[in-house]
Amino acid sequence: MTELPELYFRVRENGAFVFRVDTENRMRRIDMDQIAVVNVRNGEIKAHGSREVSDAERAKIEAWLEARRATLHARELDDIERTIDRLNLTANWAQQSATPDELDQVADRLLLAMHDLRSVLVRKKSQAAKASGDDED
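Below the sequence we write its predicted C-alpha coordinates.
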Protein backbone atom coordinates (compact mmCIF):
# COMPACT_ATOMS: atom_id res chain seq x y z
CA MET A 1 0.00 0.00 0.00
CA THR A 2 1.24 3.50 -0.75
CA GLU A 3 2.08 6.01 1.94
CA LEU A 4 -1.06 7.69 3.22
CA PRO A 5 -1.19 11.47 3.63
CA GLU A 6 -1.09 12.98 7.11
CA LEU A 7 -4.33 14.84 6.45
CA TYR A 8 -7.49 13.85 4.65
CA PHE A 9 -9.96 16.45 3.35
CA ARG A 10 -13.62 15.41 3.08
CA VAL A 11 -14.97 17.96 0.64
CA ARG A 12 -18.30 19.56 1.42
CA GLU A 13 -20.36 22.28 -0.23
CA ASN A 14 -18.35 25.24 1.03
CA GLY A 15 -15.07 23.73 2.13
CA ALA A 16 -13.99 20.56 3.87
CA PHE A 17 -13.74 18.63 7.07
CA VAL A 18 -10.08 17.96 7.87
CA PHE A 19 -9.03 14.66 9.40
CA ARG A 20 -5.68 13.61 10.84
CA VAL A 21 -4.82 10.18 9.40
CA ASP A 22 -3.20 7.70 11.77
CA THR A 23 -1.94 4.23 10.88
CA GLU A 24 0.50 3.94 13.76
CA ASN A 25 -1.61 1.81 16.05
CA ARG A 26 -1.53 -1.81 17.18
CA MET A 27 -4.03 -3.05 14.64
CA ARG A 28 -2.45 -1.15 11.70
CA ARG A 29 -5.89 0.09 10.81
CA ILE A 30 -6.57 3.58 9.54
CA ASP A 31 -7.91 5.97 12.15
CA MET A 32 -9.18 9.37 11.09
CA ASP A 33 -9.66 12.06 13.71
CA GLN A 34 -11.44 15.23 12.65
CA ILE A 35 -9.29 18.21 13.61
CA ALA A 36 -10.75 21.15 11.68
CA VAL A 37 -13.36 22.60 9.36
CA VAL A 38 -12.28 24.74 6.40
CA ASN A 39 -14.41 27.39 4.68
CA VAL A 40 -13.32 27.89 1.06
CA ARG A 41 -15.14 31.21 0.60
CA ASN A 42 -13.63 33.12 3.50
CA GLY A 43 -10.53 30.99 4.17
CA GLU A 44 -11.50 30.36 7.78
CA ILE A 45 -9.92 27.33 9.46
CA LYS A 46 -11.68 26.32 12.68
CA ALA A 47 -10.30 23.69 15.00
CA HIS A 48 -12.86 20.95 15.65
CA GLY A 49 -13.98 20.66 19.25
CA SER A 50 -11.03 20.61 21.64
CA ARG A 51 -8.57 19.59 18.90
CA GLU A 52 -5.52 21.68 18.22
CA VAL A 53 -4.12 22.24 14.75
CA SER A 54 -0.33 22.37 14.62
CA ASP A 55 1.51 24.99 12.58
CA ALA A 56 2.58 22.29 10.11
CA GLU A 57 -1.01 21.07 9.76
CA ARG A 58 -2.25 24.65 9.34
CA ALA A 59 0.30 25.16 6.54
CA LYS A 60 -0.91 21.97 4.81
CA ILE A 61 -4.52 23.07 5.19
CA GLU A 62 -3.72 26.48 3.72
CA ALA A 63 -1.92 24.81 0.78
CA TRP A 64 -4.97 22.57 0.23
CA LEU A 65 -7.23 25.63 0.40
CA GLU A 66 -5.21 27.44 -2.27
CA ALA A 67 -5.21 24.36 -4.51
CA ARG A 68 -8.95 23.82 -3.94
CA ARG A 69 -9.75 27.40 -4.90
CA ALA A 70 -7.71 26.97 -8.10
CA THR A 71 -9.57 23.73 -8.90
CA LEU A 72 -12.97 25.33 -8.30
CA HIS A 73 -12.02 28.33 -10.44
CA ALA A 74 -10.89 26.06 -13.29
CA ARG A 75 -14.13 24.08 -13.03
CA GLU A 76 -16.17 27.27 -13.11
CA LEU A 77 -14.46 28.40 -16.32
CA ASP A 78 -14.91 24.93 -17.82
CA ASP A 79 -18.62 25.07 -16.94
CA ILE A 80 -18.89 28.38 -18.80
CA GLU A 81 -17.18 26.88 -21.86
CA ARG A 82 -19.61 23.96 -21.67
CA THR A 83 -22.52 26.41 -21.41
CA ILE A 84 -21.38 28.07 -24.63
CA ASP A 85 -21.32 24.66 -26.29
CA ARG A 86 -24.77 23.85 -24.91
CA LEU A 87 -26.15 27.16 -26.22
CA ASN A 88 -24.80 26.34 -29.68
CA LEU A 89 -26.24 22.83 -29.52
CA THR A 90 -29.56 24.25 -28.32
CA ALA A 91 -29.68 26.66 -31.26
CA ASN A 92 -29.01 23.76 -33.60
CA TRP A 93 -31.72 21.69 -31.90
CA ALA A 94 -34.24 24.55 -32.13
CA GLN A 95 -33.49 25.10 -35.80
CA GLN A 96 -33.29 21.51 -36.98
CA SER A 97 -35.15 19.07 -34.80
CA ALA A 98 -37.38 20.68 -32.16
CA THR A 99 -41.08 20.18 -32.57
CA PRO A 100 -43.44 23.11 -32.04
CA ASP A 101 -44.61 21.54 -28.75
CA GLU A 102 -41.02 21.11 -27.51
CA LEU A 103 -40.19 24.72 -28.38
CA ASP A 104 -43.35 25.84 -26.64
CA GLN A 105 -42.23 24.07 -23.46
CA VAL A 106 -38.87 25.85 -23.21
CA ALA A 107 -38.86 28.97 -25.39
CA ASP A 108 -40.10 31.55 -22.87
CA ARG A 109 -37.80 30.36 -20.05
CA LEU A 110 -34.85 30.11 -22.42
CA LEU A 111 -35.49 33.59 -23.83
CA LEU A 112 -35.74 35.07 -20.31
CA ALA A 113 -32.53 33.36 -19.22
CA MET A 114 -30.71 34.55 -22.35
CA HIS A 115 -32.07 38.09 -21.89
CA ASP A 116 -30.91 38.10 -18.27
CA LEU A 117 -27.46 36.83 -19.27
CA ARG A 118 -27.19 39.37 -22.08
CA SER A 119 -28.14 42.23 -19.73
CA VAL A 120 -25.51 41.18 -17.20
CA LEU A 121 -22.80 40.78 -19.86
CA VAL A 122 -23.54 44.14 -21.49
CA ARG A 123 -23.53 45.91 -18.10
CA LYS A 124 -20.26 44.25 -17.00
CA LYS A 125 -18.54 45.01 -20.31
CA SER A 126 -19.71 48.63 -20.09
CA GLN A 127 -18.39 48.93 -16.53
CA ALA A 128 -15.06 47.41 -17.58
CA ALA A 129 -14.80 49.80 -20.54
CA LYS A 130 -15.51 52.79 -18.28
CA ALA A 131 -12.98 51.59 -15.72
CA SER A 132 -10.27 51.12 -18.35
CA GLY A 133 -11.13 54.56 -19.79
CA ASP A 134 -10.68 56.08 -16.31
CA ASP A 135 -7.20 54.55 -16.11
CA GLU A 136 -6.12 56.32 -19.30
CA ASP A 137 -6.84 59.82 -17.95
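The longest helix spans residues 55-96.
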